[in-house]
Amino acid sequence: MQVRRLFGATGPHRRLGNMTYMNQKTLASIETRIPPTRRALAKQQTRQKILAAARELFTQRGYEGATIRDIARAAGMSTGAVFASFADKAELFDEIVAADYQALEADMAEAVQGAANVEEALLGLFGAAYRSHVHQLPMVCAAMSVGWTRDPKSAGRSREALRPIVDLIRAALQDGVERGELASHTDVRLLRGIVWEVYLSGYRAAVYEGWTADDMIARLAEQLKIILAGVRA
Amino acid sequence: MGVREQQKQATRAKVIDAARDLFDSEGYEETTIRAIAEKAGVSVGSVFTTFASKAEILGQIMAERVAALAAELERVVPHLRGSVVDRLSALLAIHYDFQMRRPKLFLAYIATSFSARHESGFTPVGSNPALRAPVRDILNDAVERGEIVANTDVELAMDTVIALHTFNYLQVAGGATASDLTQRMDRELKQFCDGLSPR
What pTM was computed for the model? Predict the structure, then answer.
């Protein structure tokens, strides 16, 4: 895992593009056995430099406010060098967000451990997300703002990156059904959509009203109480 | 109204018309102030003496559209019948039909609402009192009729309904139409209101 983090999405990942999550994991384990060449390392360093500069600028200026030209300048290289590593700004942005999701998934998976019921599980999962995101609201805003107008390619990447997190939510609800907390005829897909949308809307209050993670969690708890009351077994 | 004030109003109207068309056809981010000025037949400088930013122009366009939508709602809402789900569903369907006439414009508006830049003259999506009030009225009415539990936190329920309604627009990038949005919202509303019904 550590090695995959370090080497992010180098050569083979990029070229194979639209692989499933499982395949990327398999590939990562192969990658750990093949030492990277010097050239691949240099390329990787360039990518990391660009990603760090881009993250900084997206945080400061939002997605639209940061141009490839600005990012290149901040990373100390030409725009050509940036385009040699990333097809466009959307790809660069999506990779930063995907790295965040990966770290978040680990936090969320840990937070859900030992939850006594479906309510605790969901609050654990979303609470972990709120706690981690509240410290990087400008980046959250940039991602939320981009989400409405993504092109199909970027939308596909985003869906893929989010899948493990969405799976955690689905599993929490499914467990609730299997434990007999939620009615057996519960439409888990519909319910997942609802809790996800309600969770996302919490960021709005954080941005506009300066809410803390605890405020967001308390509100989500009230909303979940209503939503789950309708599907209790 | 003085000649100067009349000229200013005329410029304002021309800029708004031009920007509305460009935002909807070319996209909000793709449209520059220069392009708006050109299409409106005014100078770039006079755009900036009328509006502080592109977001303010967008805010103004949306405010005018909200006024038109609110007028439509005012006509229809008193005649809504049926369960709380039916009423909310009919109300929100009017929103979807209206905004999906210019989907690109509305998505740009939502995106700008979430980009955290506070601009004067920009009301973020979901916070316009004229659009929130009918949702609140329907929920209050449902409490009075005993259709939903008496201790319902109406403000929270209203915010949640509006959040579900707004986030459904995420489906538009994947090709959803106004009627797809309404169908999805109906299922969500039914599910949500089940949780509020007395048992």
Answer: 0.86
